[in-house]
């Protein structure tokens, strides 16, 4: 099913009210944001691609349209209810609980380093220690020249991201609530 249902949007808002620092937005990502992020991935490389903070699956449900190289898809979602939903709706994708353990989950499942990581994690909301740990996990989990594509609602993370990655482009997506910036980066 493409598009967010009323039930999906209500659940997302409810989870935001319970934990705004973990969710980061009052509504799921738009199809415009999903398209901007996924069209930036070099899908022809095949290999493996991870989505961090897959949430309700707002971006996940579009992956099959872009995955031309038959990449292995690995999802990370901390919320147990969303994780169950993702496993049910996307049974061909691997799904793990915490982006703080990307390397461990990849190794335990004999998955090579990733070609790309797409992220909807609200990095700026996290404490600095957690933010740095996540960026280290992302950097260490990517192949040389691997892609890191993340959306954020501001440019406040630009300096932290460019310390670890080469930012190739930042795009603005106005047709999202709230409007978002998509950072397209490469591993240095």
Structure overview:
The chain has 188 residues and is an alpha/beta fold. It has a single domain (6-187), classed as 3-Layer(aba) Sandwich (Rossmann fold). Helix content is 36%, strand content 25%. The chain contains 8 helices and 7 strands; from the N terminus they run H-H-H-E-H-E-H-E-H-E-H-E-H-E-E. Strand 6 and strand 7 form a beta hairpin.
Please describe the topology of this protein.
Blueprint (H helix, E strand, L loop, with lengths): L5 H13 L1 H4 L7 H9 L8 E5 L10 H4 L5 E5 L3 H10 L4 E3 L5 H7 L5 E6 L8 H14 E11 L5 H7 E9 L6 E8 L1
Parallel strand pairs: 1-2, 1-4, 2-3, 4-5
Antiparallel strand pairs: 5-7, 6-7
Shape: globular
Structural class: alpha/beta
Radius of gyration using CA atoms only: 15 Å
State the share of residues found in helices, binned by percent.
25-40%
CATH architecture: 3-Layer(aba) Sandwich
Order of strands, main sheet, comes to 3-2-1-4-5-7-6
What's the story with the biggest beta sheet? Answer: 7 strands, mixed
Low-pLDDT regions: 10-17
**Count of folded domains:** 1
Mean pLDDT: 89
Top-tier CATH class? Alpha Beta
How many beta strands in the DSSP annotation?
Answer: 7
CATH homology-level superfamily: Vaccinia Virus protein VP39
Q: Could you tell me the strand content as a percent range?
A: 25-35%
Distance from N terminus to C terminus (CA atoms, Å) equals 37 Å
Order of helices and strands: HHHEHEHEHEHEHEE
The DSSP helix count reads 8
Question: CATH topology, which one?
Answer: Rossmann fold
């Amino acid at each position: 099913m493409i598009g967010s249902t009323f039930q999906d949007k209500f659940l997302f808002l409810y989870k935001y009210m319970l934990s705004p620092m973990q969710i980061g937005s009052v509504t799921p990502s738009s199809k415009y944001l999903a398209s901007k992020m996924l069209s930036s991935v070099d899908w022809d490389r095949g290999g493996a691609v991870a989505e961090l903070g897959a949430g309700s699956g707002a971006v996940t449900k579009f992956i099959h349209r872009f995955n031309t190289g038959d990449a292995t898809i690995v999802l990370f979602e901390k919320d147990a209810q969303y994780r169950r939903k993702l496993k049910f709706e996307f049974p061909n994708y691997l799904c793990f609980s915490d982006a703080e353990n990307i390397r461990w989950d990849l190794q335990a499942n004999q998955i090579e380093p990733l070609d790309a990581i797409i992220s909807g994690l609200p990095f700026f909301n996290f404490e600095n220690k957690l933010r740095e740990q996540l960026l280290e996990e992302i950097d260490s989990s990517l192949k040389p020249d691997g892609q890191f594509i993340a959306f954020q609602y501001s440019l406040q993370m630009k300096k932290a991201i460019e310390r670890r990655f080469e930012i190739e482009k930042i795009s603005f997506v106005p047709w999202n609530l709230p409007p978002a910036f998509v950072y397209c980066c490469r591993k240095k």
